[in-house]
Design brief:
Layout (H helix, E strand, L loop, with lengths): L1 H10 L4 H22 L9 H10 L11 H21 L14 H22 L3 H32 L4 H10 L10 H14 L11 H4 L9 H26 L6 E3 L2 E3 L1 H21 L6 H25 L2
Antiparallel strand pairs: 1-2
Helix pairs in contact: 2-10, 2-11, 3-10, 4-5, 4-10, 5-6, 6-8, 6-12, 8-12, 10-11
């Protein structure tokens, strides 16, 4: 029975099927809202499903100059990593589908795997655009990841646990951490770091379509490109769910007018709001240069996270 539960959680809910459907939906909403913010009609919300389906039906091509094993395998590894993070997040209750000790450390590690896989894919593609995009990704990774980790350290210091379930439980007993004024700078820093993690404007430097075509993904096409798109669509949901658990108390079940509202509905509402905030940020800014991004993360972003950490340590 435990084995069947594991496969159901991994492949259906809250794993691959659920994460893919909701992730693609959120990116579709993101594209539609972006269109309206730019005074366009924008594509229909279901356009992302159509794009991924069309790519899946195309020919699978591997460049002659590519190191085929690495080039073909890394998208699948990245997909496995983001789906595993979904299992570690509280989606329908405070208890995730897959509980581990010190799971915050595991989540940090797993969320880096897609970026590392994309770098390997770019370097192995044999394309100069892929190599440049991968190099930019390496540089940016070390800057936004520092901010991301510092924010988590601030939250862990406040709660006193490396377990995400404990963080959610702490907020259920006290209040959401977003209401703790000492962690407001950390929350702002977190939003800056996830823009880089998701390669969203102003930190879409590694793919900079107007300069290096599509960066590390330039040579990807057909099913492999579809997998990469699903990876980043799921990661959009995963990162939003992670922020919801850290600062917004995770999924909470409600009773309204005698009707029981399950926790997964609360999870979807919170994550959608977070995604829309990132959509707004990427539409009111212009792309930075790589040196500007590094300076921003290592000064402003890191400073905000450190301020929160100091306040949590000093102010009772």
């Amino acid at each position: 029975m435990e084995v069947l539960d594991f496969f159901f959680n991994s492949l259906v809910f809250p794993g691959l099927l659920f994460a893919s459907l909701i992730g693609l939906l959120y990116v579709g909403i993101d594209r539609k809202v972006t269109g309206h913010m730019q005074h366009r009609i924008g594509p229909p919300i279901w356009q992302e499903y159509l794009d991924v389906g069309k790519l899946m039906s195309k020919e699978d091509i591997t460049p002659h100059a590519a190191q085929s094993l690495v080039f073909n395998v890394v998208p699948l590894i990245a997909l496995g990593a983001v789906v595993t993070v979904m299992l570690l997040l509280p989606v329908y209750s405070a208890q995730p589908a897959l509980a581990t000790v010190a799971d915050l450390i595991v989540i940090i590690y797993l969320l880096n795997i897609p970026a590392i896989c994309l770098m390997l894919g770019g370097y192995s593609s044999g394309s100069p655009f892929g190599s440049v995009g991968a190099a930019r990704h390496v540089v940016q990774l070390f800057s936004y990841e520092l901010v991301f980790i510092l924010v988590i350290i601030a939250v862990v210091t406040r709660v006193g646990s490396l377990n995400l379930t404990t963080v959610v439980g702490y907020q259920a007993q006290h209040s959401w951490l977003i209401l703790d004024w000492r962690l407001i700078p950390a929350l702002i820093a977190m939003f800056t770091s996830i823009q880089g993690k998701l390669m969203r404007v102003p930190f879409d430097i590694p793919e900079a379509e107007s300069k290096i075509v599509h960066g590390a993904m330039t040579e990807y096409s057909g099913p492999k490109l579809a997998i990469w798109r699903v990876v980043y669509d799921i990661e959009t949901l995963v990162v939003a769910g992670f922020i919801a658990a850290l600062f917004l108390g995770g999924p909470v079940a409600y009773t309204i007018g005698g009707v029981q509202i399950p926790g997964v509905v609360d999870f979807l509402i919170k994550t959608l709001v977070i995604v829309l905030i990132t959509t707004t940020l990427r539409n009111i800014m212009a792309r930075l240069r790589i040196d500007q991004a590094l300076k921003f993360y290592l000064t402003f972003g890191a400073l905000l996270a450190i301020i929160s950490l100091v306040l949590v340590l000093v102010v009772p």
